[in-house]
């Protein structure tokens, strides 16, 4: 079997828990996977335990029995290969739109990582085939619906396992849809003939929801830091004060995230002629509105929520999630580690934080457009008031997104629908929590893009006063979109701003001018 090369740097799996960065590199950048030989040896040793149980006339769950509500049904030796094959085929029951390539690659990577712990009882050949498929850029088709987040992400993982045995639809590295057998043959990969316990080992994990948590944290690291930048730009454009962000004030409330967000805002606003222009005693404003003054409190709370989510993710990345598992002393034990509650809760928690961060950003957008509150800027930042509407409807777009994010903040993990004839009578809905978080993160990027657009236009309208070096660099990225003037087709300008946020271009522009900011 050949593990095909890619141009991305290699990631070694099996030598310990994969890092979030390694998972993201495989999922998003097609980093090549190398398997630790010691992990393959450990898999072989554990496999010997499963093979000895296969000879036992006493039933052992997952080895010589049916599954779920059929766990009491003993399966004769000659039927067990068919049992594993039937398990994968029947559980590949997803429906709905295709899931994104990066999510499928992440969940396949994490299932491979669990196989390499040597606790599942699968043969080394199975892990080698997963690695080969990932390295070849073969992506099984996985559907939106099918996981309840308990007994693992069953349907999503089953669609991946189906491809490993040479069945079902996949997409090749270029995205062409084809049959799995054809794709494997083109990559010189032999499909796996599953043996005892292996079908179960391939589908019984939290890998789908965990993979999406890892990717979400990578996205939020960029977006939350960008939110510090856009908040600072709004403070500047609204003639707000940087005094509430002073270091000694943050030390009175020692939340790490708060300190980091305030420090970012201080650095981004440092040397701003706009801020300096109204710092003297002639400024009669006592204090700014909450959406300006409390930006570090909200951004910081999001950061601290992310820190908790990272802790949960790190523990789950180090876990061997399967049922039953082969313990280090050779026992084969049923357990409940596949229940997705630990991951589901933090996915829902992050959706709440994302909704609130976007909500505060939208309030600043609205303030920038309102002549009663924007301290001398034209209504809606329009060129010719009355003839032009300026950014009026951009705020509508942001408000509509925020309303949707508030709906998505309702927890999926608070729900449970019994399944498998009441054997699986409580489930986590962690997959659904992950799916709605991905939608929420996209919405946050769009709202921050609209704030970037509005604040940049506000800066331009403060001329001849100049913004800080950092905020000016951010505004320069969308200078064409943000320039004042007669009304233009606005949707492309909003999209350009959202792309600058989502891609990390805003952060790079700022950090190129003032050095690295504190990331979440």
From TrEMBL:
E.C. numbers: 4.3.1.3
SUPFAM superfamilies found in the cross-reference section: L-aspartase-like
Reactions this protein catalyses: L-histidine = trans-urocanate + NH4(+)
Annotated pathway: Amino-acid degradation; L-histidine degradation into L-glutamate; N-formimidoyl-L-glutamate from L-histidine: step 1/3
InterPro entries cross-referenced by the UniProt entry: Aromatic_Lyase (IPR001106), Fumarase/histidase_N (IPR024083), HutH (IPR005921), L-Aspartase-like (IPR008948), Phe/His_NH3-lyase_AS (IPR022313)
Entry keywords, A to Z: Histidine metabolism, Lyase
Protein's cellular compartments: Cytoplasm
PROSITE patterns with a match to the protein in the record: PAL_HISTIDASE (PS00488)
Source species, domain of life: Bacteria
UniProt keyword Kinase, yes or no: no
Keyword NADP annotated: no
Gene Ontology MF terms: histidine ammonia-lyase activity
Family as reported in the entry's similarity comment: Belongs to the PAL/histidase family.
Protein name: Histidine ammonia-lyase
Organism name: Demequina litoralis
Higher taxonomy: Bacteria, Bacillati, Actinomycetota, Actinomycetes, Micrococcales
Gene name of the encoded protein: hutH
